[in-house]
Amino acid sequence: MTAPLVTRVASADAAAIADAVRQLAAGGLVAFPTETVYGLGADATNGEAVARLYAAKGRPAFNPLIAHVADVAAARALARFNADATRLAQALWPGPLTLVLPKGAGCAVAELATAGLDTIAVRVPDHAVAQKILAGFARPVVAPSANRSGDVSPTTAAHVLADLGGRIDLIIDGGATPVGVESTIIACLGEPMLLRPGGVPRQAIERALGRRLADPPAGFAAADDAPLAPGMLASHYAPRTPLRLEARRVESGEALLAFGPTLAQGAEKAASVQNLSERGDLIEAAANLFSHLRALDGAGANTIAVMPIPRDNLGEAINDRLARAARPH
Ligand code: TXA
Ligand code: MG
Questions:
Q1: Which residue's CA is the closest to the ligand 1 atom numbered 29?
Q2: Does ligand 1 have an atom closer than 6 angstroms to the CB of 63?
Q3: What ligand 1 atom has the least distance to the C-alpha of 146?
Q4: Residue 260 is part of which domain span?
Q5: Is residue 235 part of a domain?
Q6: Are 78 and 190 in the same domain?
Q7: What is the average pLDDT value for the chain, to the nearest integer?
Q8: Cα 22 to Cα 19: distance, rounded to the nearest angstrom
Q9: Do residues 248 and 183 both lie within one domain?
Q10: Do 85 and 98 meet the contact criterion of CB atoms below 8 Å apart?
Q11: Could you tell me which of 15, 144, 145, 243 has the fewest CB atoms within 10 Å of its CB?
């Protein structure tokens, strides 16, 4: 248990960024916006700060964290880049891409943050507020999504406060996050492998690599003990209300998560309706996904019916998140 804290919320001006840097240096927990979702930051080199972070999230301690840095040079101080990793970093950083790489010899990141693995996940976020905090702090910052473990990822400061208020020191409010789903995770340990679909579509990764990506081994995403990305637990992205996917009509007592201009049959009797994108735009849908799920989860419906969503581009990440959210937990 962590003692209750007073969580301050500050809008992202220069004073707030200086405050965030001071808090991180003192071992504090600071939530801040990235282009994907809000992250809960701690000094990656401070094992106690990392432990407090796991406690605040209620996250299983075997689940390793992403180290965030301001630029490629800082990432190279943490990890070994092969030719594929170098190509991806040059083409797609800063941006919603995380690389899992062999830990470098001089890597200062606390063992707890990588859950004892000899690999490390690193990312250079493309968001002005995240960039200023990372440049000001000048050390790696571990930042899982700023939600309690098992809840949906936060895309606004209000989501963070609702989930983690009283458990963290500071929230820097930089408005809604533009991408809305987490970063794409690629392991560059041998053949490059897609570990988690996310903000960079597979096609963009394959274009930068000049070849196709390997898929993870079968059964990989459901395991939680010693897989490459143990964070991809079956229940990772889960609202409390059960989800019914590929719904073409709404049953009584259900809420509706819609997509596109034509609502599912029976939408008029839905307990509540949120449309991911009326114009059927997957980028807009990704940006709305977690906040709409949250809104429907609070609507008192017995089930959330989810209309079919295309699987191309960001649709892969959206369907992946929904499939996880739909599993019993
Ligand atoms: O967009 C994002 O990536 C956000 C923002 C805040 O940057 N962060 C985020 O972190 O989604 P988190 O902790 O919620 O998800 C990190 C994922 C987990 O599934 C974890 O298991 C995986 O990255 N991961 C971390 N280190 C790893 C490693 N060494 N090998 C394989 N997977 C790793
Ligand atoms: Mg998360």
A1: 120
A2: yes
A3: 6
A4: 243-326
A5: no
A6: yes
A7: 89
A8: 5
A9: no
A10: no
A11: 15
